[in-house]
Hints:
alpha/beta, tRNA-uracil-4 sulfurtransferase activity
Amino acid sequence: MKYDMLLLRFGEFTLKGKNRKRFERTVIKHVKSKLKAYPGTSIIEEYGRMYVDLGGNDHHAITDSLRKVFGIVSISPVKVTPSVADEIVAASLGFMEELNPQQGTTFKVNARRVWKAFEHSSHETNHLVGAPILRQFSALKVDVRNPDIELKVEIREARTYLYYESVPAVGGFPRGSNGKAMMLLSGGIDSPVAAWSSMRRGLELEMVHFFSFPFTSQKAKDKVIELARILADHAGEVKLHLVPFTEVQTSFTKTGQDNLMITLMRRSMLRIATQLAEREGALAIVSGDSLGQVASQTLGSMNVIGRATDLPLLRPLVMMDKSEIVKIAEDIGTYATSILPYEDCCTLFVPKSPTTNPNLRIVEKIEASIPELPEFIARAVEQTETLVLRSNDDTAMPDSIQEDWF
Ligand code: ATP
Ligand code: MG
């Protein structure tokens, strides 16, 4: 089928009264950045609806790209015709012809007269369009309840839209529309998925990654940079804070408390992330924890680890199964990078039997036995390096064009 436009439907954020305009603009900006790859396309806004004029491009690749835009719940490729009765009928016949219905296919016409000055009511239009279709295509049968093909005919003043398919899109909130949080990004499978899930909810994220030269390699760091870059394809742009963690980490190894290593490290990671959050104006910390997945993700561990920060700790994956997480990782394009075998600072120091139920008082005692710990933490924050990673989609888009657009 050769389509003219795409109809984009917005999600739940349209309910949110006065924020609506701001949210719509954010989605438009995101759509615009995706459309840069398709010359000739343009955006048309019409009474709370948004269309993309395909400008002669094939609709498949563009639909696939726009499905990933946060805030869009579904997309319908549409054919366009002037809002004149004869033309609508002719275009509808052409539409069915391209669909080439097989014997026994059921259908119905669902017309909607949005432009009240159009000469036929919605009900009349159903007949006006349906009758000649039935005459021309003997293979078709009418079924008003559950048809195989429901031809939607939407009559608006500027033009009439014909469509029947609806492709589901990612939904959620427009990017960056719900505040900022710090994301603990490791090189694993889970945290990039947690990051994407948060972005989909409209959170703006800054990534925090802890590395331990010389125990972790440059390759492990590059892998995390690549993951952040992939996430920038979804977010437009992300900051990645690379925190040198060796000093903090080795101060724990010296205590000989192997079983509590992960608990101690995690608590310090949270303290560092909290300081970075304060500096950057972020209001929460996000991690890729999933309940019960490993020793540090039991309820007992989450309790003792979580107490190291006063900020809300968001764990988008907490109730998800690994198989669901892997599926999302594949969909968002992080999986192949996540499974590259480079050691993370945590995996490297995993003891044989990490505790699944750490005792808060003992943990606090061990921390108190390292008087330099606050200093090490402060130094880690100070020596943090920050990279800014941009989406491949967005790089070629100068700010001036973005501003002009509104
Ligand atoms: P992931 O696949 O995200 O690494 P995981 O199942 O391997 O998760 P852990 O390694 O125990 O689990 O890590 C739990 C969470 O702690 C991660 O999802 C991430 O949010 C955070 N985290 C772990 N290591 C690091 C690190 N080096 N830098 C930043 N965050 C980390
Ligand atoms: Mg990990």
